UniProtKB/TrEMBL annotation:
Signal peptide: none annotated. Its main location: membrane. This is Dipeptide transport system permease protein DppC. It is a multi-pass membrane protein. Pfam families: BPD_transp_1, OppC_N. Gene3D superfamilies: MetI-like. Belongs to the binding-protein-dependent transport system permease family. It is found in: Cell membrane. The keyword Nucleotide-binding does not apply. It comes from Bradyrhizobium ivorense. The chain crosses the membrane at residues 38-61, 110-136, 148-167, 179-196, 239-262, 287-311. Residues 108-308 form the ABC transmembrane type-1 domain. Keywords: Cell membrane, Membrane, Transmembrane, Transmembrane helix, Transport.
Length: 320
């Protein structure tokens, strides 16, 4: 290949990337995003929370998961700006001498990891079952939808508690921190797959009667390729909205399970675990142990929910 061809192709790639970027800036979704200052603030806060979780090991003054770095002599120290505050504990410490700010950063990482993994698992399961139910219909559709109808009669937290309880009863003491995290992901995923399945099923039932699906069937494309390559992309709008809103719900579910003692252990706490630990010392006057993790959880959930509401309106032409 000549040296002149490579710069020419690189220039084409650069122009294509620049063209895509300009189209994104000129799109209706980005215009709707720029018009809403509340959405821009929510997006900035969400990005900030994600960055804090990603760079927790660089920003934290200690690793709260490492017992060797914890000293009981530093337990229950007030926040830095109070009379009894000490450096470098900006938000104070808990009963184990764990820096609250560091614990929030690492706990947020756990909460986001469980929430994102739970949403991915729920989405993969729900989208797959929704495609099968909507495309093939018949017995498969009836069985999947009846299971979904039965599950909808129970709150998601009860499903998660049931799955978590069954896993712990079967595995018992063999559950370590990472196994507990995996159980939480499965429990949350099995709690939220129904919304994806019902939404995708409805969209597929509309799309499969269109001409492009008939043309794909006519040329002999297999059903999985038609569903994944042609039908699924046309249902992604509602899926993105559900995934954004379900991320907040998944984080709340994990925090609830951890607060009830059925989630992450004290040695690897999430935000819900930190709130449960701090709640034991609230009436003793150590309010900061529960207040700051609660504020962090509330801010994270609120910002994600605001983004989900905006995305729902932006992707729905009837609401523009």
């Amino acid at each position: 290949m000549s040296d002149a061809v490579v710069p020419h192709r690189n220039a084409q790639v650069s122009r294509a990337g620049a063209g895509w970027f300009r189209r994104a800036l000129d799109s209706d979704i980005f215009y709707s995003f720029r018009r809403s200052k509340l959405t821009m603030v929510a997006a900035a806060i969400t990005v900030l929370f994600f960055l804090l979780a990603i760079f927790a090991s660089w920003l934290a003054v200690q690793n709260p998961f490492d017992p060797a770095q914890l000293q009981l002599i530093n337990s229950r120290i007030s926040p830095l700006w109070t009379a009894d505050g000490q450096s470098p504990f900006l938000l104070g410490t808990d009963e184990q001498g764990r820096d609250v700010f560091s614990a929030i950063l690492y706990g947020m990482r756990i909460s986001l990891a469980v929430g994102i993994a739970g949403v991915i698992f729920a989405g993969a399961l729900g989208i797959g079952l929704g495609l099968i139910a909507g495309y093939f219909g018949g017995v498969a559709d009836s069985v999947i939808m009846r299971i979904a109808d039965v599950q909808l009669t129970f709150p998601a937290i009860l499903i998660a508690l049931l799955v978590n309880g069954v896993a712990k009863s079967l595995l018992g003491n063999r559950l370590d921190e990472m196994s507990t995290l995996a159980v939480l992901v499965i429990a949350i995923g099995l709690s939220f797959w129904v919304q994806y399945a019902r939404t995708v099923r409805g969209s597929v039932m509309v799309e499969k009667n269109k001409d492009y699906v008939a043309a794909a069937q006519l040329i002999g494309l297999p059903a999985p390729k038609i569903m994944l390559r042609h039908v699924l992309p046309n249902t992604m709008g509602p899926i993105l909205v559900i995934a954004t809103i379900n991320l907040a719900l998944a984080i709340i579910t994990e925090a609830t399970l951890s607060f009830l003692g059925a989630g992450m252990p004290d040695t690897m706490p999430s935000l819900g675990t930190l709130i449960r630990i701090g709640n034991n010392y609230l009436f003793a006057g150590e309010w900061w142990i529960v207040a700051f993790p609660g504020i962090a959880l509330a801010g994270l959930i609120l910002s994600i929910n605001l983004l989900g509401d905006w995305l729902r309106d932006a992707l729905n032409p009837k609401l523009r």
